[in-house]
Amino acid sequence: VLVLGIETSCDDTGVGLVQDGRVRVNLVASQTLLHAEYGGVVPELASREHAQVLDRLVARALDEAGVRPRDLDLVAATRGPGLVGPLLVGLGYAKGLAWSLERPFLGVHHLEGHLHGALAEAPVEPPFLVLIASGGHTHLYRVEAWGRYELLGATRDDAAGEAFDKVARTLGLGYPGGPEIERLAAAGDPHAVPFSVPMRGRAGYDFSFSGLKTAAVRFRDEGHAPADIAAGFQRVAVASLVGTLERAAQDTGLRRVVVAGGVAANRALRAALAATGLEVHLPPPGLTSDNGAMIALAAARRWARERRADSLTVSAEPYWPLGEAV
Ligand code: ATP
Ligand code: FE
C-alpha cells in the first residue's frame, strides 16, 4: 500500500510517502525564514506559502520515490488541530487529489501523526503511555486501545517546546529554540544555576513550564552565564517530563511508553528516558518535528485496522482534542 501524507497544520509544509509501512520519502519545506521578521507565525502568509509549494513538493516526492500519482492507494492530510487557513490548504489539496485519482481520503489528527511517527520503526500495540512534547502540546495519554486516548495530564501554561523557544529568545538565541538550547547547554554546568523542577511533589500528571521562562530572565539579569542557564533549564525541563512519565508508568503499571513531538529530538531527554528502564519508543531522526511521513503512517495504520476512509466533506478542525470525535 502506497500512502501520500500531507502536513500543513502550522508553518512547515510536509509531504511524505509511505509504502507498506516503510517511509520512502519525507520532504519538509520550512517557512521559518518567512516568518522570522514578524517574531511568530503569520497565518495568512503561512497559508499562501503552503499553497505555493505544495504541488511542487508532492511532484518531487513522487519523483524521488519513482512512482506516479496513479500508484497511490491512499491520500491523507492533517485535519487538525492547527491553524485553520494552513490546514484548509493541505486538506483541500489532498481531497482534490484523492477525488481525481478515485482513491480513499483520510483526514488525520496531528497528534496521532506524531504518535505514529514515533512508532515508524517499531510498530507496537496498546496498551501504552504516550507523551507528546511539542511546540503546542505537552500532553500525557494512556492508550488502552487504538483510538482510545485517556488524557492523564497536560501543561497548565506553556508547552515544553514553547519553553525551549522562549528561554532561547531570552538568551538571544535563534528559532526554533530547542536545538539552540541543546547546543549551548553542552558547554554549561547544569547545576550552576538554581532552577527547580516545576510541579515536583504535586499529585496528578500536569506540567507547567512558564515559571522556568520567568526564572531564566531573572538568572540572566543576575549575570549567570548563558550556557549555565541553558544547561540548568534543560536539566529541570527534562526532569519534569521524565519524572512525571515515570510516575504515571508506576501508577498505571504500563512500562511501555512512547515519547513524540519536536522535543523528543533532545538528547538529554533521550538519555534520561534510557536511564528509566522503561520500554521507550522515540521517533527516528526527521520524524520528530512536523512532517508528512507521520501523517501517512497514521493513515496507513488506520486503514489497515479499519478500512475506513473519510468523506470528502470533512472540514479542518483547528481545535480538536485527541480522542474526541468530531
Ligand atoms: P504541535 O505539534 O503541538 O502543534 P509543533 O508542530 O509546532 O506543535 P513540533 O514541530 O512537534 O511542534 O516541535 C517543535 C518544537 O520542538 C519547537 O518548540 C522546538 O523548539 C522543539 N524542539 C526541536 N528540537 C528540539 C531539541 N533538540 N530539544 C528541545 N526541543 C526541541
Ligand atoms: Fe506538531
- Note the run of SSEs as H and E: EEEHHEHEHEEEHHHHEHEH
Q: What is the radius of gyration computed over CA atoms, rounded to a whole number of angstroms?
A: 20 Å
Beta strand %: 15-25%
Helix content: 40-55%
Mean pLDDT rating: 97
List cofactors, ions and other ligands.
adenosine-5'-triphosphate, fe (iii) ion
Uncertain stretches of 5 or more adjacent residues: none
The total of beta strands comes to 10
Binding site for Fe cation: 110, 114, 290
GO biological process, one term: tRNA threonylcarbamoyladenosine modification
GO molecular function: hydrolase activity; iron ion binding; tRNA N(6)-L-threonylcarbamoyladenine synthase activity
Enzyme class: transferase
Question: Summed up, what is this model?
Answer:
Helix content is 42%, strand content 20%.
Describe the model.
The structure is a single chain. The chain is of the alpha/beta class and 326 residues long. The chain has 10 helices and 10 strands. It has a 5-stranded mixed β-sheet, sandwiched between helices. A 5-stranded mixed β-sheet has the order 8-7-6-9-10, with helices on both faces. A hairpin with a 4-residue loop joins strand 1 and strand 2. The longest helix is centred in the C-terminal third of the chain and has 27 residues, at 226-252. The mean pLDDT is 97. Bound molecules: adenosine-5'-triphosphate and fe (iii) ion. Residues 110, 114, 134, 290 line the site of fe (iii) ion.
